[in-house]
Amino acid sequence: MKLAAPSDNAHSGAAAAAPAPAAQSRFVSLDFLRGCAVMGILAMNIVAFAMPEIAYINPAAYGAGDGGNITAWLFGFLFFDGKMRGLFSLLFGASMMIVIMQMTERGEDPTKRHYARMFWLAIFGLLHFFLIWWGDILFSYAAAGSVAYLFHHLSSRSLIKWGLILYAAAFLTISLASGAMLYTQYRAYQPGASATEIRDYRVLIEDTGYGQAAIDRDLAVHRGSYAGILDDKLTEKLFDPLLGIIGVLLETLPFMLIGMAMAQNGFITGQAKPQTYRRFAIWGFGGGLILTALCAAVNIRTAFDPVTVMVIEMNAAMPARLLMTVGYAALLILFIRRFSLACISQHISAAGRVAFTNYIGTSVCMTAIFYGYGFGLYGQVSRPWLYGFVLCAWAVMLLWSKPWLAHFHYGPLEWLWRSLARGRLQPLRRVA
């Protein structure tokens, strides 16, 4: 399958210069996709907000092993895990490319502006990580975006090719680590396994966060004070943002390159033919869902064996995540092209326009709800009930975003980021 061919007028709206932000063209599909992505990310991140980190990928590691817990995990694994992050990465690359194209067509050099944006995004990410929540992606996105810019001069076909090459290289690289983990487990389970082989396996389990000592420590930290949580990050997790860049470059950078291509050829801005989107929706989303279901079946069949879960999460599910991410984009674009005037579509699009503020805002709210310095619910709410908090947060996103944008050009953090990157305060309030 090929992505949509470039259109003669694919960038006419994006390239139009205007004196005021209100006059600038926007791609409705891009805003709508971003709104769906920021809402979907919370649906998966809620477990990481409310439970020890290992519970994010393994429902048997923490919490009851009943049917409700497994069903909630299965729903998240099938439809959200990795797919929303992938969609957000596509959109990050697409938005970045649109800004580059806008500036280039106006005869401006986008390099300085781009790296200023990435610098301040990295600062926001570090503040988010250390002061609010350990699951930050902004710092890693800034790093990946800085590398992705080096590819911006390529055609959409070349960007897709490089994205797929890098994704395949990442898959093969991670496969080596997965193979080593499986081999360590295999040796430990053999009759007559040596004490060294058994010890190596136990160390592997402890290092992946499955040990009871690691879980107890996690609970103690996050049920404690704000000062204790901050101290843990400054002492035990000081270099985690830098280490996270490695994983992001392996998976997120390819998604960004593909998103840049989709901005060039008009796919992600809703300018491809309907049959193109239908084809990607069927083969991408449908095929990816089947592969994801097979991975889920293996996890359940092995009773969520720690090594098996880890291998599937970081390696085996990669092809399915890529297919479903592109399939999601196609499905959502088909929806917004047909129902762009629907009330819910407009509210989701508005949430997407202030996605940065919504993303940070959910971190502030959820940590206040679950951490010890707030309501102290950390580790005490079962997985199915966590979706109640997600629905409430979605309602808040949808209710505040559109009214805010009726009076202001940007969300609060979008405005701050834009002002810092441009070195001067940007107009915020709309003029009647």
Structure description:
The protein is mainly α. Helix 2 (28-50) packs across helix 15, helix 4 crosses helix 14 (318-339) and helix 7 (156-189) packs antiparallel against helix 13 (306-316). The protein is built from 18 helices and no strands. It has one domain.
Please write out the topology:
Elements: H1 12-15, H2 28-50, H3 67-79, H4 83-105, H5 111-131, H6 138-148, H7 156-189, H8 195-207, H9 212-222, H10 226-235, H11 240-265, H12 274-301, H13 306-316, H14 318-339, H15 343-353, H16 355-370, H17 383-407, H18 412-422
Brief summary of the model shown:
It contains 18 helices and no strands. With 432 residues, it is mainly α.
Runs with pLDDT <50, length 5+?
A: 1-25
Helix/strand/pairing category: mainly alpha
Q: What kind of oligomer do you see?
A: single chain
Mean pLDDT: 91
Question: Terminal Cα separation, in Å?
Answer: 47 Å
Topology as a string of helices (H) and strands (E): HHHHHHHHHHHHHHHHHH
Structure annotation, total helices: 18
Q: Give a quick account of the main beta sheet: strands, pairing sense, barrel closure.
A: none
What share of residues are in beta strands?
A: under 5%
Report the C-alpha radius of gyration, rounded: 22 Å
Instruction: Tell me the helix content.
Output: over 70%
Shape: globular
Number of DSSP strands?
Answer: 0
What is the count of distinct domains? 1
